[in-house]
Write a structure and sequence with these properties.
This protein has about 1000 residues and is mainly beta. The chain has nine helices and 53 strands. The termini are far apart.
Length: about 1000
C-alpha cells in the first residue's frame, strides 16, 4: 500500500484530536427551549426575532400566539428583538421554558399623540401636551378616571371629592375665569363632555391633555380651560383576547376630629353659663346625665367597602376589529347610609375595505347614588351634644332614636344625625350614553375625508323622602312628611366633517393639512315637584298636598369652521398653525362670531450636523407657541332680559300691605355680551440624554383671560323686593375685566428597561402666580369684588383671603382710650394696620393666597422578574385654607360640643398663653382673621402598589397573564393642617378658592385594596 498517505498510527492520533476538538459539544448537549413573548399588558407578540448571540444564522421567530421553540445549549444567550421595543438578551442556563416581556424602546419608538381632529408624531409636537399612561389609570381605586391624573403631569392640578361617586376638580394652568367655569373640555372618542366620570378607567387607551392654546385652539369656544382627549381601547388583529380586572378594598376615614367627652363638655357648659352670668338650673348637662357619651364623629363615619370589576373581549382580522367591555363599580360611603354604584357597557368596532373605513363607539352607563339627606349636615353631626343617645327604644315618635331632651335649650337643639341619615332618603339615578359614528374614505393618495356624528344623552332623576319627625324641639319637629323629585336631561349632537391631506415631498418636507366644519346642537331641561303628605311618609307625588313645581329649558347651537397645517422640514423644523371660527347662539347676532388663531414652532437642535460631536445628547428641542381660545356661557339666551316671578307690589296698600303680585326684572338684557377670550404664550425646552433614558422638559407659560363675563350691579330701580344676593337679581352680565396666570413647569424622567431589574422614576413641579389685571370700574377706578371673606382686586392674587391680623389676646379690659373700647380680657387683639388709632374695616388686609402657588408629583415604578412595585406622591403648597370646621368647633361662644383641644386651652387669668380666647369671648373676637386660616401645604403618599405575575409559577396555554397585587391609597398625608384634607374639594367662591365648609366637608378615605388582573 505504497499509496497510503496515513498509517494506522497516524489515524489513531487524528481520531483522538477530533474527539478533543469536539469535547465541548459532547459535554454541553443542546436541548429544546420553548417560551412565549408578550407586551407589558400581557398580549402576545407574533414576529419577534430570536437568534443565538454570535451565531446570527441560528434562530427563529414567534408565531401568531407569540410562542417560539429552538435548540440551544445552557451557555447560549438568546437575543430577542422587535421593532419599537428594547432588545433583550437572556442566557438559557437550565431553563427549558422562557417567558419574555418586551418593553418599549424610548429612543426608537415613534409615539403617536392624539390631538384635535387627528394624530401627530410625538417628535413633531410644538405645543404643550401631557399624557398619562393607560396602566396608571387603573392604579387608583376610583370610579372617576380624572382622579388618576393627580400628580402625573406638570401644569395639571386635580382635587378630588371625598363623597362616593363624587366629581373631580381639574384646573389646567390655573383658574381660567372669575365666573367659576374653569373646568376643561373632555373629548371622549369625539364626543364633547364636561366630565369623564362616566368612563371606566379600564376602557381608556390614551389620555392626552392639551394645555396651551396652540394645541387647544382647534376646539375654539370650548378650549379656554384646556382640553382632555380620551380614546377608548380597540381590538387588535388576532384571535379573541379576554381581559379581567377585579379589585376590592376597604375605605377608612382619616383625620377624624377628636371631640370633648361628656365630662369635658359638662365643664365647658358650666363655664359658659357662668361667663354669661346665668344660672345653669340643670338645663344643659345635668349632674345625673353623664352616663351617656356619644362620639357622633365615629357614629357617622365608618369603614366602607369599595369594589370594581371589568371584563372585556377584543379581537380582529384583516378587515376590522372589535372590543366589548362590561364594568361594575360599587363604592359604599364612609358616611352613614351613603354609597355609589355604576354599570358600564362599551362597544367599539371598525371595518375597512379598500379605501373606505368606518366604525362606531357606544358607551352606556347607569349609576345610582345614595346621597346624604338634605338635612344631613356633617359639621353639625359631629358637634351634636354627646349626652344624646343614638337610640332610645322607648321614643316612639322618633322611631326609637334618641332625641334632645327639654333640658337642652337654645341653639344646642340639634337633631339626632343618625336618625336623619337612616330615616330620610335622597337617591339619584343617572343614565348616560355616548355614541360616535364615523366614516373615512381616501379620495386620493394622501387625501382623506372623515365624517363623525357624535351624540351624547344623559338623564338624571332624584327623589327625596322626608317623613314627619319629632326630635323634641319645635326646630326639628315636622307634622307633615315631604316628597320631592327632580328630573333633568341633556342631549347634544356634534357633526364633524373634515379633509386631511398628508404627504412627504423629496424625503424632507412633511406636510399635514386639515380643514373642516362642526355643527353643534345642545339642549337641556329640568323640572322639580314637591308635595307634603301624612305623617307616615309619601312614596310619590300622588296623594300629596301643598304641591309646588317648576322647571326650565335651555338650548345652545353653534356652527364652526376650522383649519390647521403642520409642516416639518428635514425632521428638524416644525411649524404648526390653526384657526377656528365659532358662531354661537349665546350672543346677539352682531357678537356671535369669534375667531381663535394659533401658531407654534419647534426646532430639534439635536438633529443638526453640529450636534454630532456632542456625545450623550439625543434630544435637544425648543418650542414656542401663541394662541387664542374662547369661552361663552353655560346658560342660554342671556342677552334676553330675565324676569323674576311671584313678587308682591305695594301698589294700593302701600309698603305695609304689598298684596299685588307680579314680575320684576331680574337682570337687564346683555345685548353687548361677547366672547371671553384667553390669550396664551408657551415657551419650552426638551432635553434627552443617554439614549433618551433621562429626559427633561421646562416650560414657561402665560395665560391672560380678557373680556371676562362678570355679573355687574345694575341700577336700583329694577323693581321692588329684589334680593341682590340671589341668582342674577339686580345684576347684569358684562364683558369686564381680565386675569393673568403665568408660571413655570418642570418635568424629568429616567427609565432603565435593560436587564432583569427595570425601573422608571419621574417628577414634575409647577409654579404659578395669578392676579387680576382689570376689574369693574366705578368713576374710572377699578373696584374690588368681595365674595364672602375673599377678595378680587387689581394687581393682587385672585380671591385672596381678606381680614384682620391678630396679636394674641387682651390681658385686661379695654377702656374708651384703647383701640377696642368694648374688648374684655381674653378677647382677641387685632392689629391696627392703618395706624388710625381704631380697629375698623380699613384694618383688614391680605391674609394669604387661597389658590396654590406650587403643586408637584413624584412617581417610581420597578420590575424584577415577576415582581413589580409602584409609588406615587403628590402635593401642593403656597396657599392658605379657611378651615371653617375647625374654627366653629373651637368657637368659645357656642353651646355645641367642642374639640377636645379646647379643654384647658382657653384664656384665663391663670392661663394667659392659651391658644384660644376666653370662654364667651366677645362677638368681635369672631371677626374673620388670620386665626381662621391654616397652612394648606401637604405631601400625600397617594398610592403604593406591589404586584406579582403568577405566570412564572404556572404553565398554561390559555392564560397569558395572571397578576395579583395589593396596595393602599392616601397612605399618609404629611401636613400641618388640622382638618379632614388640605386639598379641599368644597370651595368658598365660584372661582374654586380654598374653604373646607362645616356643613358639607367629609373625611378623606385611606383605601386598602387587593386585586387580580388576568388575560386569556
Amino acid at each position: 500500500m505504497k499509496y497510503m498517505i496515513f498509517s494506522k498510527k497516524h489515524l489513531r492520533w487524528i481520531l483522538l484530536l477530533l474527539m478533543v476538538m469536539h469535547f465541548p459539544q459532547l459535554s454541553w448537549a443542546q436541548k429544546q427551549v420553548k417560551g412565549t413573548v408578550s407586551m407589558e399588558d400581557g398580549f402576545h407578540i407574533p414576529g419577534v426575532n430570536i437568534i443565538i448571540k454570535n451565531q446570527p444564522t441560528i434562530g427563529t421567530v414567534t408565531d401568531v400566539l407569540g410562542e417560539f421553540s429552538l435548540e440551544a445549549s445552557p451557555e447560549d444567550v438568546l437575543v430577542f428583538s422587535f421593532i419599537g421595543y428594547t432588545t433583550q438578551e437572556i442566557k438559557v442556563g437550565n431553563q427549558t421554558q422562557i417567558q419574555v416581556t418586551m418593553l418599549p424602546d424610548i429612543q426608537e419608538l415613534k409615539s403617536v399623540v392624539v390631538i384635535g381632529y387627528g394624530e401627530q408624531q410625538e417628535k413633531d409636537i410644538t405645543g404643550s401636551i401631557g399624557m398619562v399612561k393607560p396602566e396608571t389609570l387603573t392604579k387608583i381605586p376610583t370610579a372617576n378616571a380624572a382622579q388618576a391624573m393627580q400628580g402625573r403631569m406638570a401644569g395639571v392640578q386635580v382635587s378630588n371629592s371625598t363623597e362616593p361617586g363624587g366629581g373631580t376638580k381639574v384646573r389646567i394652568r390655573g383658574v381660567g375665569t372669575v365666573s367659576g367655569q374653569s373646568d376643561p373640555l373632555y373629548v371622549i372618542d369625539g364626543v364633547l363632555s364636561t366630565t369623564m366620570i362616566s368612563v371606566d378607567p379600564n376602557d381608556i387607551e390614551s389620555l392626552t391633555v392639551l394645555k396651551d392654546a396652540a394645541s387647544a385652539a382647534i376646539y375654539g369656544n370650548r378650549g379656554a380651560n384646556g382640553v382632555v382627549i380620551i380614546q377608548t381601547k380597540s381590538g387588535k388583529k388576532g384571535e379573541t383576547k379576554f381581559n379581567f380586572n377585579g379589585e376590592f378594598g376597604v375605605q377608612t376615614p382619616m383625620n377624624l376630629y377628636e371631640m370633648m367627652d361628656i365630662n369635658a363638655y359638662k365643664a365647658y357648659a358650666n363655664d359658659l353659663f357662668v361667663a354669661n352670668g346665668a344660672i345653669r338650673q340643670n338645663r344643659w348637662v345635668r349632674d345625673d346625665d353623664i352616663s351617656q357619651s356619644t362620639d357622633w364623629s365615629k357614629e357617622m363615619f365608618n369603614p366602607a367597602a369599595v369594589q370594581r370589576y371589568n371584563f372585556s373581549a377584543a379581537g380582529g382580522g384583516e378587515m376590522g376589529n372589535y372590543r366589548v367591555s362590561l364594568g361594575y363599580t360599587d363604592q359604599q360611603g364612609m358616611m352613614l347610609e351613603t354609597g355609589y354604584k355604576r354599570y358600564n357597557v362599551a362597544v367599539k368596532s371598525n371595518m375597512k375595505k379598500g379605501r373606505f373605513k368606518m366604525g362606531e363607539t357606544l358607551m352606556f352607563n347607569v349609576s345610582q347614588t345614595k346621597k346624604r339627606p338634605e338635612q344631613s349636615n356633617p359639621g353639625a353631626a359631629i358637634h351634636t351634644a354627646p349626652q344624646i343617645p343614638v337610640r332610645d327604644p322607648l321614643n316612639i315618635n322618633s322611631h326609637g332614636y334618641g332625641i334632645p331632651t327639654e333640658e337642652i335649650s337654645g341653639s344646642v337643639n340639634t337633631a339626632n344625625p343618625v336618625y336623619i341619615n337612616e330615616m330620610k332618603l335622597r337617591e339619584a339615578q343617572n343614565f348616560g350614553t355616548n355614541l360616535s359614528l364615523w366614516a373615512e374614505v381616501e379620495l386620493l393618495p394622501g387625501l382623506s375625508f372623515k365624517s363623525n356624528v357624535n351624540s351624547s344623552f344623559s338623564a338624571f332623576f332624584q327623589e327625596t323622602k322626608n317623613p314627619a319627625m319629632d326630635q323634641g324641639t319645635a326646630l326639628f319637629a315636622t307634622i307633615l312628611s315631604r316628597y320631592n323629585e327632580n328630573f333633568s336631561w341633556y342631549s347634544g349632537i356634534f357633526w364633524d366633517n373634515y379633509l386631511t391631506y398628508q404627504n412627504t415631498f423629496a424625503d424632507k418636507h412633511e406636510l399635514t393639512v386639515t380643514a373642516g366644519g362642526v355643527l353643534q346642537n345642545e339642549n337641556s331641561a329640568f323640572t322639580f315637584h314637591t308635595a307634603d303628605g301624612n305623617r307616615d311618609g309619601l312614596e310619590s307625588i300622588v296623594g300629596g298636598v301643598k304641591q309646588t313645581y317648576g322647571g326650565d329649558k335651555f338650548t345652545k347651537r353653534m356652527l364652526s369652521g376650522f383649519g390647521r397645517f403642520i409642516y416639518t422640514y428635514d425632521g428638524k423644523y416644525t411649524l404648526n398653525g390653526s384657526i377656528r371660527a365659532d358662531a354661537t347662539s349665546q350672543f346677539t347676532k352682531s357678537n356671535r362670531l369669534g375667531f381663535f388663531p394659533s401658531i407654534s414652532a419647534g426646532w430639534t437642535i439635536s438633529e443638526e450636523s453640529f450636534m454630532e460631536q456632542v456625545s450623550g445628547v439625543d434630544l435637544l428641542k425648543v418650542r414656542a407657541g401663541y394662541g387664542e381660545v374662547g369661552r361663552d356661557l353655560a346658560l342660554s339666551d342671556r342677552y334676553v332680559a330675565a324676569m323674576y316671578p311671584n313678587i308682591n307690589y305695594p301698589w294700593e296698600g302701600g309698603a305695609a300691605n304689598p298684596n299685588t303680585g307680579g314680575h320684576v326684572i331680574a337682570s337687564l338684557p346683555a345685548t353687548d355680551l361677547r366672547w371671553e377670550t384667553s390669550e396664551q404664550i408657551n415657551l419650552a425646552v426638551d432635553l434627552g440624554l443617554f439614549r433618551n433614558k433621562l429626559r427633561f422638559t421646562t416650560e414657561f407659560f402665560q395665560k391672560t383671560s380678557r373680556d371676562m363675563i362678570l355679573n355687574v350691579q345694575q341700577m336700583n330701580d329694577l323693581g321692588t323686593g329684589i334680593d341682590r344676593d340671589k341668582d342674577f337679581m339686580g345684576v347684569g352680565l358684562k364683558n369686564i375685566g381680565s386675569i393673568r396666570n403665568q408660571g413655570v413647569e418642570l418635568s424629568t424622567y429616567y427609565d432603565n428597561f435593560e436587564g432583569d431589574f427595570t425601573y422608571s422614576i419621574g417628577g414634575n413641579f409647577t409654579y404659578i402666580v395669578n392676579k387680576a389685571t382689570e376689574l369693574v370700574k366705578v368713576a374710572g377706578v377699578d373696584t374690588p369684588i368681595m365674595e364672602g371673606n375673599q377678595r378680587l382686586e387689581v394687581n393682587q392674587p385672585m380671591w385672596y383671603f381678606y381680614g384682620y391680623e391678630t396679636d394674641g389676646f387682651y390681658n385686661e379690659d379695654q377702656t374708651d382710650d384703647d383701640l377696642e373700647p368694648l374688648a374684655k380680657a381674653g378677647d382677641v387683639r387685632f392689629v391696627d394696620t392703618d395706624n388710625s388709632g381704631d380697629i375698623t374695616d380699613a384694618d383688614r388686609v391680605n391674609l394669604g393666597n387661597s389658590l396654590p402657588k406650587y403643586f408637584y408629583g413624584m412617581n417610581f415604578s420597578a420590575q424584577y422578574k415577576g415582581f413589580d412595585v409602584s409609588l406615587l406622591l403628590e402635593g401642593k403648597a403656597g396657599y392658605k385654607v379657611f378651615n371653617q370646621n375647625y374654627f366653629e368647633l373651637t368657637n368659645t361662644t357656642l353651646k355645641f360640643n367642642r374639640l377636645a383641644v379646647l379643654d384647658g386651652n382657653t384664656w384665663t387669668e391663670e392661663n394667659r398663653n392659651a391658644e384660644f380666647p376666653v370662654i364667651n369671648a366677645s362677638s368681635a373676637s369672631q371677626n374673620f382673621s388670620d386665626r381662621h386660616l391654616q397652612n394648606g401645604a401637604y405631601l400625600n403618599i397617594q398610592n403604593i402598589q406591589i404586584g406579582y405575575n403568577l405566570m412564572s409559577l404556572i404553565q398554561s396555554n390559555v392564560i397569558n397573564r395572571l397578576r395579583v397585587y395589593v396596595g393602599v391609597n392616601n397612605a399618609y398625608i404629611l401636613t400641618a393642617y388640622d382638618g379632614y384634607n388640605p386639598d379641599v374639594w368644597d370651595t368658598g367662591s365660584s372661582s374654586g378658592a380654598s374653604i373646607e365648609f362645616r356643613n358639607n366637608a367629609t373625611p378623606t378615605p385611606r383605601v386598602y385594596l387587593a386585586g387580580l388582573q388576568m388575560n386569556f
